[in-house]
Every structure is written in C-alpha cells, then in structure tokens.
C-alpha cells in the first residue's frame, strides 16, 4: 500500500502520526504549505488516492472504489501497513467523509479528526441544504463525462475561489488535469452522489470542522450540519474563501489545526 499510494513520511520518527488525505482532483502536493509546520513534532504522512499524483492507477478497483468506503479502506490499509496508532487524520473535501468512515470502522486507531471543507451530501434534501440540486449534479457529471479537461479548466477556478489570485485556480486546474481522467470521472460520481449523513453520529473521535466563509462546494450551513451531527465536534470558521484553504489560507488553516491538537 505504501508503494501503491506513493506514501511519503517525514517529521519526527516515532512521534504521533499526522496523516493528510487530499480531496477530489488533488494530490498530496496540495498539503505542501501545511505539512512542514507539523514536522517538528509529528510523524507526517501524505499519500495519493488511486488515480491521483504518483499512485499506481492499475490498483484502481471499480468495485472497491465504487463507494467512499473503499477509499476509507485504503486509508486504513496504509495506517496498518505503517503500524500507526493514535493517528490524527486530516481529510480535505471528499476525504473528510473518507476520514469519517475510517474512524467509524477502527475508532481505536484514531486520536483526532480534522475535516477541512467537508460535505456529507452535496445534493439538497428535505431539511438539508447541500448546495446543489439533483439537476445541478447531473449536469456537472454529464459535463465531466463529455469533456473532462474542459470541465477541469472551467470548474477548478470556481472551486478554488479567490479570483484575485488566479495562480491558485491555475494550480488546481493543473492538478485536475494530471489525474487519470477515467478514474477521476468515476471518483466524481462517487463523490457527488454520496450521502454520509447517517455516518456522522457514529463518530466517537474528537473532531474539528474547518469551514471557509464562502465555499461554493460546501456552504457554511453544511459545515454546521457536520459539526452538529458529530457528537462533541468543534467548528472553526476560517477567514478564507473557496474550497481549498490549505492553499489559499495556509497560515489560518495551520493555526486552527495546531490549536485543536494542543487541546
């Protein structure tokens, strides 16, 4: 699993592990502005989901990876292979729910969860605002299926936000375009059609929700839903816009995580 997911380990050997899981269309490189701040006190682990970054795309299994549980099983396999315990698991975007599923499956292995811009369901439902209608998601997936590169160049800057800093949108676009397009299409379908609201109440691991003030993918109300549904969860509203605060506001993101870990 270490080779398959291009796992990188840095920081203090034998210290408490801090595992960073990237979101859809991203890879572990997206953590480069956050990870170094924890290397003086933690064993920092980054990796790529199958189909992203330096992962082995041939390891993609349509059945295993046909649900977010399969991606959670990958995370669990990595931490088992590295024999990691007392793990702080940080998940961005869809990997926030991957982190939830991993912690529910093996709660004794995890010390804390940090969910960055999480969403348990993207589609609106009765009494729940996910931010998208069913028609919105159908159109998004159709566009992605028909022209993945075109979709990436259009959507990445929107997802990133911060139009005054176009280099951020360009970086996310490039990341989307590096991903294996066929796996990315399938991962998008798994991501945007997921509904993990029922899993939140089963989390027993102390949890921090990091929410941006203006996120087109995961509105503030979604972050509040996650906070309220996970017993004892905390939420920090970052002074940041867009869906990727670890890139657009790494100082605020790092400070919020560090404060949570000190508690």
Structure in words:
The two termini are 32 Å apart. This protein has a seven-stranded mixed beta sheet, sandwiched between helices. 47% of the residues are buried. By secondary structure, the protein is α/β, with parallel strands linked by helices. The chain contains ten helices and seven strands. The chain is globular, with a radius of gyration of 17 Å. It is 41% helix and 16% strand.
Quick description:
By secondary structure, the protein is α/β, with parallel strands linked by helices. The protein has helices spanning 68-81, 94-105, 134-146, 148-160, 166-178, 181-192, 197-200, 220-229, 245-248, 250-262, and strands at 8-11, 17-21, 43-46, 87-92, 110-116, 207-214, 234-241. The chain has a seven-stranded mixed beta sheet with strand order 1-3-2-4-5-6-7, with helices on both faces.
Layout of helices and strands, plus pairs?
Layout (H helix, E strand, L loop, with lengths): L7 E4 L5 E5 L21 E4 L21 H14 L5 E6 L1 H12 L4 E7 L17 H13 L1 H13 L5 H13 L2 H12 L4 H4 L6 E8 L5 H10 L4 E8 L3 H4 L1 H13 L1
Parallel strand pairs: 2-3, 2-4, 4-5, 5-6, 6-7
Antiparallel strand pairs: 1-3
């Amino acid at each position: 699993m270490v080779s398959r997911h291009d796992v990188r380990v840095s920081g203090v050997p034998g210290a408490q592990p801090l595992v960073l899981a990237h979101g859809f269309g991203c890879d572990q490189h997206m953590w480069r502005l956050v990870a170094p701040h924890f290397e003086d006190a933690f064993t920092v682990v980054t990796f790529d989901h199958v189909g992203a970054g330096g992962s082995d795309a041939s390891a993609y299994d349509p059945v295993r990876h046909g649900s977010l549980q399969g991606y959670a099983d990958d995370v669990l396999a990595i931490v088992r292979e590295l024999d990691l315990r007392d793990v702080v698991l940080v998940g961005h975007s869809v990997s926030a729910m991957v982190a939830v599923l991993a912690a529910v499956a093996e709660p004794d292995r995890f010390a804390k969860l940090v969910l960055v811009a999480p969403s348990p369901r993207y589609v609106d439902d009765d009494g729940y605002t996910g931010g998208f209608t069913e028609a919105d998601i159908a159109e998004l997936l159709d566009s992605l299926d028909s022209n993945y590169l075109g979709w990436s160049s259009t959507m990445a800057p929107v997802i990133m936000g911060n139009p005054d800093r176009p280099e951020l949108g360009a970086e996310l676009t490039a990341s989307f375009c590096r991903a294996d397009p066929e796996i990315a299409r399938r991962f998008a379908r798994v991501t945007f059609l997921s509904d993990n609201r029922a899993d939140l109440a089963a989390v027993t691991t102390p949890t921090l929700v990091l929410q941006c003030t203006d996120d087109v993918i995961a509105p503030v109300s979604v972050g509040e839903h996650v906070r309220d549904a996970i017993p004892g969860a905390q939420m920090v509203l970052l002074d940041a816009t867009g869906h990727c605060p670890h890139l657009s506001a790494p100082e605020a993101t790092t400070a919020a995580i560090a404060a949570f870990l000190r508690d």
